[in-house]
Each structure stands twice: as structure tokens, then as C-alpha cells.
UniProtKB/TrEMBL annotation:
Protein name: S-adenosylmethionine:tRNA ribosyltransferase-isomerase
Annotated InterPro entries: QueA (IPR003699), QueA_dom1 (IPR042118), QueA_dom2 (IPR042119), QueA_sf (IPR036100)
GO biological process, one term: tRNA queuosine(34) biosynthetic process
EC annotation from Swiss-Prot or TrEMBL: 2.4.99.17
Gene Ontology terms: cellular component: cytoplasm
Function statement: Transfers and isomerizes the ribose moiety from AdoMet to the 7-aminomethyl group of 7-deazaguanine (preQ1-tRNA) to give epoxyqueuosine (oQ-tRNA).
Main location: cytoplasm
Pathway note: tRNA modification; tRNA-queuosine biosynthesis
Gene3D superfamilies in the record: QueA-like
Record localization: Cytoplasm
Organism listed in the record: Altericroceibacterium endophyticum
């Protein structure tokens, strides 16, 4: 499909720079099949879902993956993208033309790394020096990797360490938050459980590639970034049992949806999974593993807007986004949510 079909105009003032407080006070647009759009809040979820349904969350934890340093006198910016080994990460580099193989980049806090290899997409493999775990080095020298559409408008601060992390964050390795889950609080989770709505967690380490623009003119020419995901056998079995009992699987976030769809077989059974996935979902895709999606509002011409258009239909999502803009919903990572329930 033509990428320009997924374009729309978004006023800059609709981009949220801080999250709603409390988190579950965020607005939520409910899109059900061809029914009228309905304005709600995240805290209304217990009344919008059914007993027996299960919400699935991503328990990845965002690491302070953005680094600033120097190679000699040249200033170098690095955003870690994907772990390649105990001390090696693939990173997008700002001012990467100033780098050569075996150059040493010195970051703050006595942290340094060797630029080992340049990849075809312009990223580099960085090998961190020393014996301390890389996670400790990043805590000392790194900062939270806010999305570029927020970072371009304000600096990262101490509050982002808390704001840009979900209540489910356990497994370190993400360089972007699974932002749909930012709307959840312990009180909301308790209300869901009281309503008979369960929850499960899985892990997909979100990479910085999620923010890369689609530069191709046609979706078939876009190379999707890969990310590591894991679903254990016990979780897969419980999710399959939900559907067998007539319940629905509601993915909280596109990362969860992509991992579940990657793990599902042709019959829709979710299998244990521990591998990279580069699944690219566009209109025409047949969903096998999920029955609904809670997600934030995404960028024009992004792979994520293509994904929600595949779930609900392009014209339907164009209308939903036009409604959201007109009614002053807040967009992107710190913005409001949508609950998408196809017929």
C-alpha cells in the first residue's frame, strides 16, 4: 500500500509533553466496530470489558539508554537500540560520520565504549569497557530516552525516570516504554480484578527503531526493525485457555500485539516464544491471537498507525483520529489512549 495513505495533519499542540495525573485519569476513545465513538477515561476499563477477558501487558523495563560523549573533540550522541551481548549494544549514533572502527567514545561518569562495527543502517556496535555490568554504567552516565517528538520540545528531567516507566516494568532491556500501560495504576488493576478481568505479562524489549520514520513510498519496501520477545509456556497455556472459555485477549500496546501475533500458529494458538520478531502488520493482515487493543495515538505514516488501521480499517481509523484531534485528545507516548474493539 502507498505510505501516504496513512498521513494526516496533527497540530503540534496535540502532542503531550507530560502524562496525565493520576495515570488512569487519561482520556480514552473507545472505537467499537462501526458504532459511534465513545469518550471515556482509562479508569473506566472495568465497565468497558467483560468478566473473563484478559489484558496482556509488556513487563519490559526502560533503561537510561541515551548517552552523550566525545571521540576526541567530536561530540557523539548514542541511543542504544538492541543488546547484542553482555557488553555490546547496537546503537543509533548522532554525528556518526565522525566515527571509525576502534574509536573510543568517552561518556560521563568514567564510562567509555569502543565503536566496533558500522551497520548498513548507519548504526554502530558499541562495546562497553570495564567489568561493571552495563546496566550500572548506564545508570551512571545515561538518561531516559524520551521519544524524539518530546525531546525536541523539552529536556529530559528527573521526573521522566518515573513517568516513562510502567507499573509492570520488571525485565530491563527496553529503550522505549510500552506506553499504553502507562495509564495503569494499582487501583485500576484492583478494580479490573474485582470485575473478573484478569491480566498476564510477557516481555518484548522495545527498541529505538520503533521511532524510525517510514522512508519508503510503499509499505512493501519498508524494512521493519527487530526486537527480542519472550512468552513462557505457562503464560501461553493460560492465554489459550481464556479463549477456549469464551474470553477475549486484549493487548495493552502494540508491542504486546506484535509479540502475540508472532507467537500464534495458523490456528490462533499462542505458542511459547523466545526470539527476535520483525513482524510488520498492515491492512490485509489476518489477526490470529488478539481480540482487541488498547493503545495510544500514533504518528502519521508510522508503522503503528498502519497496525491499528489493519485492525479496525483505514477509513475507520482516519475518522477516529480526526475525531480525537477535533476533541483535543493528547497524542503519542505521554498522551491519551484508545480502546479498539473490532467486530
Amino acid at each position: 500500500m502507498r505510505v501516504d495513505l496513512f498521513d494526516f495533519h496533527l497540530p503540534q499542540e496535540r502532542i503531550a509533553l507530560r502524562p496525565a495525573r493520576p495515570r488512569d485519569a487519561a482520556r480514552m476513545l473507545v472505537v467499537r466496530g462501526n458504532s459511534a465513538f465513545a469518550d471515556h477515561h482509562a479508569r473506566d476499563l472495568p465497565q468497558l470489558l467483560k468478566a473473563g477477558d484478559v489484558l496482556v501487558f509488556n513487563n519490559t523495563k526502560v533503561i537510561p539508554a541515551q548517552l552523550e560523549g566525545y571521540r576526541g573533540q567530536a561530540r557523539i550522541g548514542a541511543t542504544l537500540h538492541k543488546r547484542l551481548g553482555p557488553r555490546s549494544w547496537q546503537a543509533f549514533i548522532k554525528n556518526g560520520k565522525r566515527l571509525s572502527a576502534d574509536d573510543v567514545i568517552t561518556f560521563g561518569g568514567d564510562v567509555s565504549a569502543i565503536a566496533q562495527q558500522r551497520h548498513d543502517d548507519g548504526s554502530w556496535t558499541l562495546h562497553f569497557n570495564g567489568d561493571e555490568p552495563v546496566e550500572i554504567l548506564l545508570e551512571r552516565a545515561g538518561r531516559m530516552p524520551l521519544p524524539p517528538y518530546i525531546a525536541a520540545k523539552r529536556g529530559t528531567d528527573a521526573q521522566d525516570r518515573e513517568d516513562y516507566q510502567t507499573m509492570f516494568a520488571r525485565e530491563e532491556g527496553a529503550v522505549a516504554a510500552p506506553t499504553a500501560a502507562l495509564h495503569f495504576t494499582p487501583d485500576l488493576l484492583a478494580a479490573l480484578e474485582e470485575a473478573g478481568i484478569g491480566h498476564e505479562t510477557l516481555t518484548l524489549h522495545v527498541g529505538a527503531g520503533t521511532f524510525l520514520p517510514v522512508k519508503a513510498d510503499n509499505t512493501q519496501d519498508h524494512a521493519m526493525h527487530s526486537e527480542f520477545g519472550r512468552i513462557d509456556s505457562e503464560t501461553a497455556a493460560r492465554l489459550n485457555a481464556v479463549r477456549e472459555a469464551g474470553g477475549r485477549i486484549i493487548a495493552v500496546g502494540t508491542t504486546v500485539l506484535r509479540l502475540l501475533e508472532s507467537a500464534a500458529d495458523q490456528d490462533g494458538k499462542i505458542q511459547p516464544f523466545a526470539d527476535d520478531t520483525a513482524i510488520f502488520i498492515t491492512p490485509g493482515y489476518t489477526f490470529r491471537a488478539i481480540d482487541g487493543l488498547m493503545t495510544n495515538f500514533h504518528l502519521p505514516k508510522s508503522t503503528l498507525f498502519m497496525l491499528v488501521s489493519a485492525l479496525m480499517g483505514l477509513e475507520r481509523m482516519q475518522a477516529a483520529y480526526a475525531y480525537a484531534i477535533e476533541n483535543e485528545y493528547r497524542f503519542y507516548s505521554y498522551g491519551d489512549a484508545s480502546l479498539l474493539l473490532p467486530d
